[in-house]
Amino acid sequence: MNDIWTYLHYPFAQHALIAATLVALVSGLIAPFVAARDMAFAVHGSAELAFPTAVAGLLLFDDALTGALLGSVLVAIAIALLGSRRGDGNTAIGVILAFGLGLGVFLLSFYHGYASQATNILFGSIVAVTGRDLAVLGVVAAVVSLLVLVVYRPLFFSSVDPEVAEARGVPVRILGLLFVLMLTVTVTEVAQVVGTLLVLSLAITPAAAARCWTAAPLLVTGLSVLFALLAADGGFLLSLAFVDSGVKASVFITFISFGLYVVARVAAVVRRV
Amino acid sequence: MSQRPAIQLDHAALRRGDRLLWRDLTLDIEAGEFVAILGPNGAGKSTLLKVLLGLLPLSEGHALVAGKAPRRGSAEVGYVPQQKGFDTDLGARGRDLVTLGVDGHRFGPLGAAGRAARVEAAITAVGAKAYADRPIGRLSGGEQQRLRIAQALVGDPSVLLCDEPLLSLDLNHQRGVVELLDRRRREAGTAVLMVTHEINPVLPYVNRVIYLVDGRVAVGKPDEVLTSARLSSLYGTRVDVLRVRDRIVVLGAETEPHHDHDHFHDSDAGEWHAQ
Questions:
Q1: DSSP string across A99-136
Q2: What is the ipTM of this complex?
Q3: What residues of chain B, 159 to 218, have a C-beta less than 8 Å from chain A?
Q4: What is the pLDDT of residue A166?
Q5: Which among A171, A194, A235, B235 is placed 20 to 30 Å from B115, CA to CA?
Q6: Residue of B50, B55, B96 best to disrupt the A interface, most CBs of A under 10 A
Q7: Contact B79 A164 (CB under 8 A)
Q8: Which domains, and CATH codes, for chain B?
């Protein structure tokens, strides 16, 4: 444990811990809606599509995050335009996803910088977070949190009960578009920390675990944020404790997140017996 | 004192694309009236509800709900949509569904004042107190339907629109739901307009029926409309209406598809539902 404390005096570790916290906060907030709207595949799709846009960012601005954030807006529009209904959406996302990954690999062949930049996009590089990255993460986290606060009730209404929500005058379609946009931006942020391949561990697992404990919506959201924080911060601190092993923080984050889910499922079964 | 009708339709017609769903629909539905909308699949029964909800414009004619043009989000209208069921682990309780009926359409972090008391009253009124705090996806169809009715009534609407509220409910729950709606319209004067293809559970309660077939419309008391002569001319083919004790069996009319619910497997093809 001494090790962790020592490391936390370094700016890289402080940056990483702040990044993990910010990312956990927004993904924990978004995750219950992802679960209620059955959009796990959209998360996975937009996460993997952050790969080609991040590589494009590397090529154009020598900065993966800028490319990924700009790209996430394009991805959101594409997802929203190609499929309005659930089933449609999945097929459309699958189509864009396959093309997007190919495009990413294609773009990568033009990139001659550090090769690790590319694997960082895929598997996350929490220790590479710079002060500027943190500023971007902070702004995105603030905007997404504020938006969730404002649209929480109508978004929840249109997620669990779209027909009545529409009849009651809720702008169901516009909220759907807004949510996809919030989702892709959040996912891009999360991808910074855990990588595009492991995004679901923060963007859906915490909500899946929370829903095993309670059906009260605000409590689900609260637990989801708590689980995401435990996974992200805990995972990073563990990676410091086991720094000699060379295992990435994203791996520990995924493990903790899944562990919380397993505990929740087992507890749910036990309580029902 | 003559009250303003809850719903007014004047030579209303609706087309989707170049297909005529119905036309010349003219009637006033008074406060407290219970009206069933009947007819084969695709006749535009649910679409009529959509018009009254302000989700679709009429192609011809005029419609007024509580004296005003139909408008999305009107507080005068409660809506019980066709039963779809909820995901088992949706992360919402019955109480939350009802709460959304109060202020689910409102933006911002603050809920409506006095919300909890109104929700509690609505839940009690439909007899759903015992299971209102359980996850909605784990409730039975009948329990979910009661909570849906509570959600629609919590805003105290003057018009209640229900789309197949009896679908996939067993006989006991069907009776329970219909009695609930009947009590509401008697006690609060709420006009109830219900799309159904099961006439028998509602027959003792409804004042009038709207029968839609292939663009044609018949409106009147059940005894006037549900006759062999009237339905034969409506369908343009020989239809027999039989009365077995206090039930009605319609033979020869276009059959409703049975695949979306289970407990009518035994009814013959060609026989209109009469369980």
A1: HHHHHHHHHHTT--S-THHHHHHHH--GGG--HHHHHH
A2: 0.86
A3: none
A4: 94
A5: A171
A6: B96
A7: yes
A8: 7-223 (3.40.50.300)
